[in-house]
Design brief:
Layout (H helix, E strand, L loop, with lengths): L2 H18 L3 H12 L4 H7 L6 H40 L18 H14 L4 E2 L5 E3 H4 L19 E3 L14 E3 L4 H10 L4 E10 L11 E11 L4 H16 L5 E8 L2 E10 L16 E10 L1 H6 L8 E8 H8 L13 H4 L3
Helix pairs in contact: 1-2, 1-4, 2-4, 5-10
């Protein structure tokens, strides 16, 4: 078969091959097949040198015309395919303004922090201020200044996390220089009394640590809120009125409160405060142990021994203190039976609040 005939046959298939390319990648494969180093048309052009001069002119002209036409058709088809690809991308990314908007998920405040802020707002509304202190606390502020006897079980290493003794000696649980993870935020009360003269109306929120096994009602780390009032002529009636006000603001105006005698080393007299059960309205149910009441906090009049350690004149001033677990308040507020779920990070649960 003559070279001219081969060129004519190739010319008849070029348009068909180029039109068959469905995208730019397939078109590039056609270009390589025709014009590449080993392409069909390139191979024919190389054979021109083997022809005699009489045939070379006609075949050369036909081959060059085919090459130019192939390049032109390839360029046109490439523009068509690129335009089609752009239209497809635009169609896929087109904004349909008739569709509902896609709202980005918003973060929410954790339930424990929300309850903490609500408690703070209640007391700030009646004149309290917020005070803070270190979580790694000296034994003196955590125990001694709060009237904990040297044999008090809370000072045991089985109940308290001891960090180190600055003297380098092994801890005994009785030395005021030892450092512990605070077991309550009451040390902030002592620090406040040492730094500020009465009258004092403060709240001390923060994390506390105890060697407790996690169960439905206990956590080894939890958030506590303590309050302290020191002023002239403060009585137990002031304490009771304040606690009753707080309970109604936090749990509802229809909730009742009751005080039960108790013992705390740093207050005397002392009491635990219960609020009427919100599930059964005080008639008794499984949630409240069929008592109609739920314990929420402890409180009492500041012991004169605490005033002595804090350099407050107990002959001129009296005061009261109270403490509550914010995790427990959150559980009671929303009828959560197991406080461990508050710190497990389950977003299905947390998004409900």
């Amino acid at each position: 078969m003559s070279l001219l005939t081969q060129i004519e046959q190739l010319q008849s298939t070029v348009q068909e091959k180029i039109d068959a390319a469905a995208d730019v990648a397939e078109l590039e494969a056609v270009r390589v097949e025709l014009l590449g180093r080993k392409g069909s048309l390139t191979t024919l052009l190389r054979e021109l040198g083997t022809l005699d001069p009489a045939q070379r002119a006609a075949c050369g002209k036909a081959a060059n015309e085919l090459r130019q036409r192939t390049e032109d058709v390839l360029a046109q088809r490439q523009e068509q395919l690129q335009a089609a690809a752009l239209d497809q991308r635009l169609a896929q990314g087109r904004l349909d303004i008739t569709l509902p908007g896609r709202a980005a998920p918003l973060g929410v405040q954790h339930l424990i922090n929300r309850i903490r802020d609500q408690v703070i707002d209640i007391f700030i509304g009646i004149g309290y201020q917020v005070a803070e202190g270190p979580e790694a606390e000296l034994d003196f502020y955590n125990f001694t200044a709060l009237n904990h006897d040297v044999q008090h079980p809370a000072r045991s290493a089985s109940d308290t996390f001891y960090l180190f003794d600055p003297s380098g000696e092994e801890h005994t649980g009785f030395e005021p220089s030892e450092v512990v993870l605070r077991t309550h935020t009451s040390p902030v009360q002592v620090r406040t009394m040492l730094q500020q003269k009465p009258p004092i109306y403060v709240l001390a929120p923060g994390k506390v640590y105890r060697r407790d096994a996690a169960d439905p009602t206990h956590l080894p780390q939890f958030t506590q809120m303590e309050g302290l009032v020191v002023d002239r002529d403060i009585t137990f009636a002031d304490l009771r009125g304040t606690m009753d006000y707080f309970c109604k603001e936090m749990f509802g105006k229809d909730r009742k409160t009751r005080f039960r005698p108790h013992y705390f080393p740093f207050t005397e007299p002392s009491a635990e405060v219960d609020v009427s059960c919100g599930i059964c309205d005080g008639s008794g149910c499984r949630f409240c142990g069929n008592t109609g009441w739920i314990e929420i906090l402890g409180c009492g009049m500041v012991d004169p021994e605490v005033f002595r350690h804090s350099q407050v004149d107990s002959d001129s001033y009296t005061g009261f203190a109270f403490g509550m677990g914010i995790d427990r308040i959150a559980a009671l507020r929303y009828d959560i039976p197991d406080i461990r779920i508050l710190v497990e990070g389950d977003m299905r649960f947390l998004r409900q609040f």
